[in-house]
């Protein structure tokens, strides 16, 4: 607003140049954040699996992993809300820096060296799958803004599907594929990744819609909204602690529907809540169920607990890719639904979006009840990645 008074009488070119440079720097920073997360998350999960060989140990380790990952997400939201309230929106870009530095130091000092030689990188496959995911996400975003029949929507979805076909073709012909297609013949792996995709769409949408709902409909400040979400983090930790004993008693395949039922109840409760004027016990109840459901989820352990030696990196990468794809596509689709109902009022739009998230969980619940046949890992699909 005051940029025109920085240099009175100037033609504005220096300011414009600096502004363009800063915009490019911000874009590059966001790309770097995404690339770093794409490497760190599956690498960390692969490290957890490499340090624990038996299924029982991996189930317990995945409980700790789920607690840390889920609680970390909510702590990030809390810190983002409090720092935004105190220092402004720019503070959200500073919040991850100390955590990244601390994590890098811990891994550097304590992680064991990787055995064996690194595998070859499948560049054509990586390019094809990146284009496919990006184009599909852009197509969904265009659909939310302009409709399903808009040229941008059709072009994005068509390009994404074409790139996906190209990816499958490349992987079939590659001597060192990025994703050996034989892994998709294993029922538990396919089921787990599909459910992770659906949960990813739900979770990403929750973090997008919930702060807006709290501030715009309930009238909460950014600090209060972030603080109010802490019960979700607490229940994720408690649910993750209860997940290994539950999975050991009834099996991960049976524990998953239990977690999804609890999660579904939380989203339906939150969607139908009509409390006004800030935080309430009914809102707390919904948060408790959502956090417990997320913590109890043993779906990631289902996908990776029986991985062969050298295969943990592949399967953990698939889980992360499924979660990110589900988050991008699910958020775009649910945002489009919310925009379509915005004319009826903000509360109706948010309720519709939350019911859409509940629908994704319901689909995941139905899939989790489908029996799968456990197959032995394909030796051709194993390898250091």
UniProtKB/TrEMBL annotation:
InterPro entries: MFS (IPR011701), MFS_dom (IPR020846), MFS_trans_sf (IPR036259). Gene3D superfamilies: MFS general substrate transporter like domains (1.20.1250.20). The chain crosses the membrane at residues 31-51, 63-81, 87-111, 123-144, 150-170, 190-210, 222-243, 255-272, 278-304, 325-342, 348-370. Keywords: Cell membrane, Membrane, Transmembrane, Transmembrane helix, Transport. Pfam families: MFS_1 (PF07690). Signal peptide: none annotated. Residues 1-374 form the Major facilitator superfamily (MFS) profile domain. It comes from the Bacteria. One of its GO terms (cellular component) is plasma membrane. PROSITE patterns: MFS. It is a multi-pass membrane protein. It is found in: Cell membrane. GO terms for molecular function: transmembrane transporter activity. This is MFS transporter. It comes from Nonomuraea fuscirosea. The lineage of its organism: Bacteria, Bacillati, Actinomycetota, Actinomycetes, Streptosporangiales.
């Amino acid at each position: 607003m005051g940029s025109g008074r920085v240099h009175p009488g100037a033609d504005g070119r220096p300011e414009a140049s600096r502004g363009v440079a800063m915009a490019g720097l911000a874009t590059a920073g966001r790309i770097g954040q995404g690339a770093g997360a794409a490497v760190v998350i599956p690498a960390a999960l692969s490290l957890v699996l490499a340090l624990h060989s038996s299924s029982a140990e991996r189930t317990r380790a995945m409980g700790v992993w789920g607690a840390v990952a889920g609680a970390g997400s909510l702590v990030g939201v809390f810190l983002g809300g409090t720092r935004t309230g105190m220092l402004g929106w720019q503070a959200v870009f500073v919040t991850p820096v100390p955590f990244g530095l601390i994590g890098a130091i811990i891994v550097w000092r304590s992680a064991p060296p990787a055995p064996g030689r690194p595998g070859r990188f499948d560049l054509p496959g990586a390019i094809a799958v990146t284009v496919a995911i990006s184009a599909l996400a852009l197509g969904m975003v265009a659909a939310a803004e302009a409709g399903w029949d808009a040229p941008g929507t059709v072009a994005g979805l068509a390009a994404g599907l074409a790139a996906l076909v190209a990816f499958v073709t490349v992987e079939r012909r590659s001597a060192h594929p990025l994703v050996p297609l034989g892994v998709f013949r294993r029922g538990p792996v396919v089921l787990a990744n599909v459910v992770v995709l659906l949960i990813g769409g739900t979770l990403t949408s929750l973090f997008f819609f919930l702060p807006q709902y709290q501030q715009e409909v309930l009238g909460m400040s950014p600090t209060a909204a972030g603080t109010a979400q802490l019960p979700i983090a607490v229940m994720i930790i408690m649910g993750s602690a209860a997940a290994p004993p539950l999975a050991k008693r009834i099996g991960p395949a049976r524990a998953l529907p239990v977690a999804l039922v609890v999660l579904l109840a939380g989203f339906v409760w939150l969607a139908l809540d009509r409390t006004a004027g800030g935080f309430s016990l009914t809102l707390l109840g919904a948060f408790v169920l959502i956090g417990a459901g997320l913590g109890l989820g043993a779906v990631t352990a289902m996908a990776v607990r029986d991985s062969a030696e050298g295969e943990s990196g592949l399967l953990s990468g698939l889980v992360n890719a499924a979660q990110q794809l589900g988050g991008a596509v699910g958020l775009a689709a649910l945002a489009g639904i919310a925009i379509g109902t915005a004319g009826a009022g903000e509360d109706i739009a948010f309720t519709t979006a939350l019911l859409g998230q509940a629908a994704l969980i319901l689909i995941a619940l139905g899939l989790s009840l489908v029996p799968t046949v456990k197959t032995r890992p394909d030796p051709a699909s194993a390898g250091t990645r």
